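Please go through the protein record below and explain what the tokens say about the fold. Record follows.
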Amino acid sequence: MEKWSLMTITVLLALTVRWAVSLGSYSGAGKPPMYGDYEAQRHWQEVTYNLPIRQWYFNTSDNDLMYWGLDYPPLTAYHSLMCAYIAKLINPDWIALHTSRGYESQPHKLFMRTTVLVADLLIYIPAVILYCFSLKETSTKKKASICALCILLYPGLILIDHGHFQYPLSLGFALWAVLCLSYDWDLLGSLAFCLALNYKQMELYHSLPFFCYLLGKCFKKGLKGKGLVLLTKIAGTVVLSFAGCWLPFCTDMEQIMQVLRRLFPIDRGLIITNYLFIQCFFFFPFQDKVANIWCSLSVLIKIKNIVAPQTQLKFSFAVTFLSLLPVCIKLTVQPSLRGFKFALVSCALSFFLFSFQVHEKSILLVSLPVCLIINEIPFMATWFLLVSTFSMLPLLLKDGLLLPFAVTSLAFLSVCVASFSIFEKTSAEDLQLKPFSLSLKGYISWVKSFPKIVKSLFLLSVTLMAVLSLMSATVNPPQRLPDLFPLSVSLVSCLHFILFLVYFNVVILWDSKNSRSHKKFI
């Protein structure tokens, strides 16, 4: 009873914060003609309810793909249809074909916000709770509740899901997949990740660690025995999962190709092999200033004026692939659950930093696995999660979410400091850098000052983010530099992310625990 009473309080607190944030504005509120992501989700309900499945992804007189046309996999469409049936029972005007475009009202806002909260309650929050109870480091009930509270209070996901407007289902399914793999339920884990991938194709950010980890397990079991059986079962699970999700679209090849064209817009000048391997190479104009390498470099060098788009795509593909390669090789050769979780962070961050033009919300795909290791490296995880939220500041300001951003960020930092005593866990050993430090000459001479250096950098970072946030909200930029503050936010965030990528790669590649723990798969 005690563990559930503590966890109940944790969940109630998390729900209260989500409800408070949901009372504010949302993406595109009162901004015709396109409005924002809120309208996109409503429009998908309109389309899926009123049109036959064969028309969902096609441009017709009743389905203008230029106006928030469906561009996510079938599971998103099915979810929209399910919400539409409920909306129809409450108020048919909410999903009336054509006439409901741009519909806004308080009852409808309450309905839409409730659908997100229900998705949290059914998919994301239970996965977080069970994951925290599964951790060896959180064997006590109190520690599990504290870990869950920190994850559930991560401000980035709260602000995007319950402020900006987005459903947490793909991340929730991905978390269920990690949870299943932690119990060696490889088939269920494969199924859960297939659901995540069939809800949002951006889950390809996480696909390589899943693939390498499971393939590594099969190798260690022996591809002439148990390993081959496991590999066959996993392959069968993946095929059946995709077949189940895509079955209604398998009536003819044109249906399948049209859905693929919407998910991977190769007709916009993209290379098909690159796109199928790395979905995040969008060839769209930047929707906002994004904290990745190419956006940051464009401030100093107008790459598009120097290099042809196809060359940019090839180069970004090469850089992304090379940044992923060492971690993926080690995970395949030495598969371990711990290495898998760190690889999820490193690979997703590489995709975000080096892929050609991504959305700022994609940083959430990095933040989720960072949440999963907050119990192992609380100081660095807390720091990263604060920076990831800050990196979305231009988007949050556009949605009128400055106050929720400030309050949730401060609350999250306070809870992490109180729960994990993060400032007392800044030694090389606490940051899991001891193997790397020992490999450097002069380790003894500088290791004593390491915690002080790290804490100073953290305080400098937080101060800089606070000042930039305040200036972005209160100071008008110079007329000739209208994007001064969004660009500053992107550049500062990008610099942080590069350093974090180096840090996570060092932890993974110098980690001796993986080489010891992988023997259990043999």
Notes: The longest helix spans residues 207-246. The radius of gyration is 23 Å. Residues 267-287, 515-522 have pLDDT under 50 and may be disordered. The chain has 24 helices and no strands.
